């Protein structure tokens, strides 16, 4: 399921906000002089290149890296027992790895070929505004009924699209999880 999330910068942060990202940001070209300025002989910047020129130039670049797979996703958690009760007791996941850390914990769950981790570390802060993992379920209605039975909070009640059904729930720390079923 794809959604358009408005005109916010696709490179991260708020529009116009500078960040310390490790890759170069695109900068706005200087404006081209208006026709009246050109007629008066006032010079402006050179005309912009066409989009085709830009694509041609950028396609000549060799990618500096190649991503080979999705390693894992981690959700911040604050309370190990409460988080395990939700992820294992309510969602029915089985822990594949669990570690006690000096300032927290780390638990991994294998879901198909992917890994979902929950962890408490100084750099992890729970937020309902971050990315969301969407879980594909085999029986959407039964899953929603099960979640309601366990008093799981819904950020977005179940809804239908032409090709799927979905809902968004919150884990004990307010992180969002999508519940999804493709229509056949």
Query: CATH homologous superfamily of the domain at 73-182 - what is it?
Result: 2,3-Dihydroxybiphenyl 1,2-Dioxygenase, domain 1
Helix content: 10-25%
| Strand ordering within the main sheet | 1-4-3-2
Q: Estimate the global geometry from the Cα principal axes.
A: globular
Count all strands and give the number: 8
| Top-tier CATH class of the domain at 73-182 | Alpha Beta
User: Per DSSP, what share of the residues sits in E-state strands of 2 or more residues?
Assistant: 25-35%
> Do you know the CATH architecture of the domain at 73-182?
Roll
Mean pLDDT comes to 78
How large is the radius of gyration? 24 Å
Tally of DSSP helical segments: 4
Characterization of this structure:
It is globular and about 40 Å long. It is α/β, with parallel strands linked by helices and 184 residues long. The longest helix has 11 residues. It has a domain of 110 residues: 2,3-Dihydroxybiphenyl 1,2-Dioxygenase, domain 1 (Roll), CATH 3.10.180. It is built from 4 helices and 8 strands, in the order H-H-E-H-E-E-E-E-H-E-E-E. The protein has a 4-stranded mixed β-sheet with strand order 1-4-3-2, covered by helices on one side. It starts with 34 loop residues before the first helix and ends with a strand.
Write the layout of secondary structure elements.
Blueprint: H1 35-39, H2 51-59, E1 73-76, H3 80-90, E2 95-101, E3 104-111, E4 114-120, E5 133-136, H4 140-149, E6 154-161, E7 164-170, E8 176-182
Parallel strand pairs: 1-4, 5-8
Antiparallel strand pairs: 2-3, 3-4, 6-7, 7-8
């Amino acid at each position: 399921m794809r959604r358009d999330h408005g005109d916010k910068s696709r490179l991260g942060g708020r529009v116009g906000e500078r960040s310390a990202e490790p890759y170069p940001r695109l900068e706005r070209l200087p404006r081209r002089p208006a026709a009246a300025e050109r007629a008066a002989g006032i010079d402006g910047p050179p005309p912009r290149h066409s989009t085709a020129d830009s694509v041609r130039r950028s396609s000549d670049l060799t990618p500096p890296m190649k991503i080979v797979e999705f390693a894992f996703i981690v959700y911040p958690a604050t309370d190990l027992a409460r988080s395990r009760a939700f992820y294992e007791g309510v969602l029915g996941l089985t822990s594949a790895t669990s570690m006690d850390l000096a300032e927290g914990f780390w638990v991994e769950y294998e879901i198909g070929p992917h890994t979902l981790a929950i962890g408490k570390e100084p750099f992890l802060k729970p937020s309902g505004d971050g990315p969301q993992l969407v879980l594909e379920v085999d029986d959407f209605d039964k899953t929603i009924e099960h979640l309601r039975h366990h008093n799981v909070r819904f950020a977005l009640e179940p809804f239908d699209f032409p090709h799927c059904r979905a809902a968004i729930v919150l884990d004990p720390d307010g992180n969002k999880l999508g519940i999804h079923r493709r229509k056949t």
